[in-house]
Amino acid sequence: MVKSMNAAIAGLKSHQTKMDVLSNNIANVNTWGFKSRTTNFQDALYSNSISGSAGKMENGKLGGINTSQIGYGNTVSSISTNYTTGSGQYTGNPLDCMIDGTAFFIVGPYRDTAATPIDNKGIGKNGLFLSRVGIFQPDSNGYLVDNTGNYVYGYSATTVAGGTVTINNDKLVPIRIPEKTPAVGANPAERYAIQTWTIGTDGTVVGVDEENIPHTIGQIAVASVENPSGLEQSNGYLYSIGANAGNVLAMQTTSATGTIKSNFLEMSNVDLASDIATMITTQRGYQANTKIITVTDEMLEQLVNMKR
């Protein structure tokens, strides 16, 4: 009798967790770069009411019998994240961009990469984060930052005589507008006054100054993650690299990682119709478990009344 109550309570807890996940999905249906989640159930612990045994082919012995088990309801085994790319929404801002593929932007606090270089495998150990939201803008120091102030990391560009541009793709640096004139004494370096921006499909950032001269500022790096489900979401839309994420490598965009689309932001990949339908079935499951508690309570009441 008590087992049915325990199973019903376990079912209530599991369905409540599933409803929490669904409500979070629906609440973020219009959140840039949001990845929907799915709740996975599994059977709870079983106990044997009859233990199985093998048959014995001997005179006077019996044949085999099967094990009879009673379960204790269910529990949440895991919560999975769907990392498929959401559709893009046109914003008209050339500094807004999305990755049409599986990779992530690399953002984070400022790191003095001149003193301590960051190679393409040093994302996690340097406190950098991954992101799917490319709302970028220049700050007052000429750095490219996202809308929460995190620096955007990529590769620096060197322009040599003749206009040939070389991308230094072995070290990650915060992307910054190049110097127009170097620093002299107490006077800081003067940087180009960029008027218009362009971000190419390979992440190359080009700015045009007030004299209508284009300057290659750098190239946005992307991170390839071996197991995206091993990422851990932190504040906002930032992901930290969890212990089970596998190899995380910064690189230039490829056909495998996906290309960068300027003037677009990635929308949430929540399937609203599917989540609404799942919410209804979850509600029905919750109601069924409450009914088990009600019926079990009535049976216990009848048992108590037998003594009166």
Can you give a write-up of this model?
The protein is α+β, with helices and mostly antiparallel strands. The chain is built from 2 helices and 24 strands. The chain has helices at 2-27, 272-305; strands at residues 37-43, 46-50, 68-71, 74-81, 88-90, 96-100, 104-108, 118-119, 129-131, 134-138, 144-146, 151-159, 165-174, 179-181, 190-191, 194-199, 204-209, 214-220, 222-225, 231-233, 238-241, 248-251, 259-262, 264-266. The strands form 6 sheets. Strands 7, 8, 9, 12, 13, 16, 17, 18, 19, 20, 21 and 22 form a 12-stranded antiparallel β-sheet that branches. A 4-stranded antiparallel β-sheet has the order 11-10-6-23, with no helix packed on it. A hairpin with a 4-residue loop joins strand 16 and strand 17. Helix 1 packs antiparallel against helix 2 (272-305). The longest helix is centred in the C-terminal third of the chain and has 34 residues, at 272-305. The protein is elongated. The protein starts with a helix and ends with a helix. The mean pLDDT is 91.
What is the topology?
Layout: H1 2-27, E1 37-43, E2 46-50, E3 68-71, E4 74-81, E5 88-90, E6 96-100, E7 104-108, E8 118-119, E9 129-131, E10 134-138, E11 144-146, E12 151-159, E13 165-174, E14 179-181, E15 190-191, E16 194-199, E17 204-209, E18 214-220, E19 222-225, E20 231-233, E21 238-241, E22 248-251, E23 259-262, E24 264-266, H2 272-305
Antiparallel strand pairs: 1-4, 2-3, 5-24, 6-10, 6-23, 7-9, 7-12, 7-19, 8-13, 9-21, 10-11, 12-13, 12-18, 14-15, 16-17, 17-18, 19-22, 20-21
